[in-house]
Amino acid sequence: MHTDFVAALDIGGTKIAGALVDGHGQIVVRAQRATPAQDDGETVMGAVEEVLGELTAAPEWGRATALGIGSAGPVDATAGTVSPVNVPGWRDFPLVRRVQEAAGGLPVELIGDGVAITAAEHWQGAARGHDNALCMVVSTGVGGGLVLNGQLHPGPTGNAGHIGHISVDLDGDLCPCGSRGCVERIASGPNIARRALENGWQPGPDGDTSAAAVAAAARNGDPVAVASFDRAARALAAGIAATATLVEIDIAVIGGGVGKAGDVLFTPLRKALGDYATLSFVQRLEVTPAQMGTDAGLVGAAAAALARRTDAATV
């Protein structure tokens, strides 16, 4: 087995992580900076360049053959640009060109962060061995990605599988994206917490009003907290069922902070799925927690770069 590496960047509103990853998905070198998310675009790019500087200084860099970027979106892989909602300084920012310049001209593959996590779960995690899968990240937002016919399916711009913005409530709340009743508007962590508070849930003495605190209250039987998670579970079930009906996935993998809520989320989710995934070809749909943890974005960006390299070699 050759010991080539692929470089990976995982860019979000909180942190910019970089790594060199081997052909088995193992991280051999890593670097990280906080994202200066409220600063101008060049300052954010400076943090990316610092991460790349650490990677290029590693002796293993000489064996890196490609670089994958998983970025908060929306991204546009055809234009090589990113406009992350949570990094206002980047609007149509030419990230691919700038990274290529900083990385000595390596081929660069750009995908959305939900697609990156999907690539990781399919390569090394809970969707391994499944040819048709949906992977979701349920945290501050709700993102996702698809594997179809055994291949990552990023779509032309790198955003395919963005389940957070499927509408599951036609007359529902206005979503910041401009649509109504989106999965994200109901099932993201902040929206679970918002609904619990609006309906009279009282946080404990520590004043913690996060979705994790609502999950803890639900575990202890608080009826308002339970109801908020049930509503989120129904929104997720409707979105998952719609996706499965459309493209025939057989597994849905759920990660992110809300995905860590355990039975508080998965028990009502599996029950609600029975109400929405009713046709014969979607009834055996499995729902399972993600396995890849905090390195999923890096491992997935590496997987996408590897897949592109393999495709290029077979052309």
From TrEMBL:
Signal peptide region: none
Superkingdom, taxonomy of origin: Bacteria
Cross-referenced InterPro entries: ATPase_NBD, ROK, ROK_cs
EC category name: transferase
UniProt-listed Enzyme Commission number(s): 2.7.1.2
One GO molecular-function entry: glucokinase activity
Pfam family of the protein (one): ROK
Keywords tagged on the record: Transferase
Family: Belongs to the ROK (NagC/XylR) family.
Protein name per its UniProtKB record: Glucokinase
Lineage, top ranks: Bacteria, Bacillati, Actinomycetota, Actinomycetes, Kitasatosporales
